[in-house]
Amino acid sequence: MEKLVVFTGAGISAESGLKTFRDADGLWEGYNIEDVATPEAWRKNPELVQNFYNERREQVLKAEPNEAHKIIASLEEFFEVSVITQNIDDLHERAGSKNVVHLHGLITKSQSDKNSSLTYSIMGSNIEMGTLCELGSQLRPHVVWFGEEVPMIEEASFLCSKADVFVLVGSSLAVYPAAGLLQFVPSKTIKYIVDPKIPSVSAYQHVVKIEEKAVIGMKEVKELLLNER
Description:
Blueprint (H helix, E strand, L loop, with lengths): L2 E6 L1 H5 L12 E2 L2 E2 H4 L2 H6 L1 H17 L4 H8 L5 E6 L5 H5 L4 E3 L2 E8 L6 E3 L17 E5 L9 H9 L3 E5 L20 E5 L12 E4 L3 H14 L2
Parallel strand pairs: 1-4, 1-9, 4-5, 9-10, 10-11
Antiparallel strand pairs: 2-3, 6-7, 6-8
Helix pairs in contact: 5-8
């Protein structure tokens, strides 16, 4: 069975009502990124950061997977599908995707402030200040902040290197190291790029550009993929 790698960004979650990570004004839900998405912000004002992510988590739990998420999950009937996502929501999993790599963490989990490999499921939508991990340190969101290592990047790079078909949907390829994953996809592999504003991919061969939002674009991708079988 052919290996299909789907790389998703904020654009796919936007159609489920979740705001894209960074708006045109550079803010995320009205906050400066530096105030809520860095280790320095956490050290400076952990209550603010914790509350910010508690609010984001509540939004995620209320959101539902959209048709694009469901189409990606449905392709498992025809391909060996791996999803690599920059998104911290669990909409791919709820749509039925079985193999999802979260580059930037998963907001429905918490992690130890001392050891990021210690992760826990969250009951409800909040992580309370004073809730500690087994090492006795404060629990924080299981999210990769600016300035932190991206622990899943090696696995994602490997998956890309083995892709027989590659789909990029809803990402501007602006955030590194995730943006560099396209470099690992074999040159002979067909690459479908779905976004209203196609990022610069002139360096790559066998590219099919679909200038649409995620839902319409993924319907087109699925049709093209199945017609080629």
